[in-house]
């Protein structure tokens, strides 16, 4: 059960399946949701269009989109001309970090979420990281989230002066994609609005990148057709 410390919460919203489910979880817990998305130099814009639609449809108090130039740093197939890997062996996913990893992305995103939470007077942040069915990114692990929460308490006025505990909620971190999908459906999430693909073609999911494969696997295991549109 979520220990609610504030009526307001910052929700990191990418427009994908996981973050949309997290938004639904926060709403169900009666939080006033402030959604935060990023135009960080990713090669496709459809995810931000979906995030904006989702935030409005699901009653977010505000949806803020911040601009970051992570493409100028590079180092990822999501922000550079590197080729997004396709049809990787799902059993070997966790053995190496793929080139779709964006250096320190969740760390950077969470820093901005903490800053906005301070301004809003919120002590709760929700993020849809997952350490079960995921691409092997190091910033999706519980160890990282716990360490970041400690750092945020030490480096913010809220943490130092008010001693208000900052809670980073990761309600999906130990769930399989199948379990996430079922949780989202139970909360009324319309997954047709979500976009997960790393390398869309004309805004249609490719069906072959890690994100698509994990999504398709989750829906198949849940016994439910994936409502996303895929490039044929």
Automatic annotation (TrEMBL):
<feature type="binding site">
    <location>
        <position position="212"/>
    </location>
    <ligand>
        <name>Zn(2+)</name>
    </ligand>
</feature>
<keyword id="KW-0671">Queuosine biosynthesis</keyword>
<feature type="binding site">
    <location>
        <position position="197"/>
    </location>
    <ligand>
        <name>Zn(2+)</name>
    </ligand>
</feature>
<comment type="pathway">
    <text>Purine metabolism; 7-cyano-7-deazaguanine biosynthesis.</text>
</comment>
<keyword id="KW-0067">ATP-binding</keyword>
<keyword id="KW-0547">Nucleotide-binding</keyword>
<dbReference type="GO" id="GO:0005524">
    <property type="term" value="F:ATP binding"/>
</dbReference>
<feature type="binding site">
    <location>
        <position position="209"/>
    </location>
    <ligand>
        <name>Zn(2+)</name>
    </ligand>
</feature>
<dbReference type="InterPro" id="IPR014729">
    <property type="entry name" value="Rossmann-like_a/b/a_fold"/>
</dbReference>
<dbReference type="InterPro" id="IPR018317">
    <property type="entry name" value="QueC"/>
</dbReference>
<feature type="binding site">
    <location>
        <position position="206"/>
    </location>
    <ligand>
        <name>Zn(2+)</name>
    </ligand>
</feature>
<dbReference type="GO" id="GO:0016879">
    <property type="term" value="F:ligase activity, forming carbon-nitrogen bonds"/>
</dbReference>
<protein>
    <recommendedName>
        <fullName>7-cyano-7-deazaguanine synthase</fullName>
        <ecNumber>6.3.4.20</ecNumber>
    </recommendedName>
</protein>
<keyword id="KW-0862">Zinc</keyword>
<comment type="function">
    <text>Catalyzes the ATP-dependent conversion of 7-carboxy-7-deazaguanine (CDG) to 7-cyano-7-deazaguanine (preQ(0)).</text>
</comment>
<dbReference type="GO" id="GO:0008616">
    <property type="term" value="P:tRNA queuosine(34) biosynthetic process"/>
</dbReference>
<dbReference type="Pfam" id="PF06508">
    <property type="entry name" value="QueC"/>
</dbReference>
<comment type="similarity">
    <text>Belongs to the QueC family.</text>
</comment>
<keyword id="KW-0436">Ligase</keyword>
<keyword id="KW-0479">Metal-binding</keyword>
<dbReference type="GO" id="GO:0008270">
    <property type="term" value="F:zinc ion binding"/>
</dbReference>
<feature type="binding site">
    <location>
        <begin position="13"/>
        <end position="23"/>
    </location>
    <ligand>
        <name>ATP</name>
    </ligand>
</feature>
């Amino acid at each position: 059960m979520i220990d609610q410390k504030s009526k307001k919460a910052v929700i990191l919203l990418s427009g994908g399946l996981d973050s949309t489910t997290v938004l639904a979880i926060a709403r169900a817990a009666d939080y006033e949701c402030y959604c935060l998305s990023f135009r960080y130099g990713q090669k496709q814009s459809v995810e931000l269009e979906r995030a904006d639609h989702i935030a409005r449809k699901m009653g977010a108090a505000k949806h803020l989109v911040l601009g970051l130039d992570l493409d100028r740093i590079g180092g990822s197939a999501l922000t550079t001309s590197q080729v997004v890997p396709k049809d990787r062996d799902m059993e070997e996913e966790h053995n190496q970090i793929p080139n779709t990893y964006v250096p320190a992305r969740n760390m950077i995103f969470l820093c901005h979420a903490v800053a906005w939470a301070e301004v809003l007077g919120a002590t709760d942040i929700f993020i849809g990281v997952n350490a079960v069915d995921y691409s092997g990114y190091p910033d999706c692990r519980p160890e990282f989230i716990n360490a970041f929460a400690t750092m945020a308490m030490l480096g913010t006025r809220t943490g130092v002066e008010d001693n208000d505990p900052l809670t980073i909620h990761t309600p999906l971190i130990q769930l399989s994609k199948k379990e996430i999908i079922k949780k989202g459906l139970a909360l009324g999430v319309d997954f047709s609005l979500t976009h997960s693909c790393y390398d869309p073609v004309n805004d249609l999911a490719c069906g072959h990148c890690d994100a698509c494969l994990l999504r398709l696997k989750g829906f198949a295991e849940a016994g439910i057709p994936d409502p996303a549109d895929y490039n044929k």
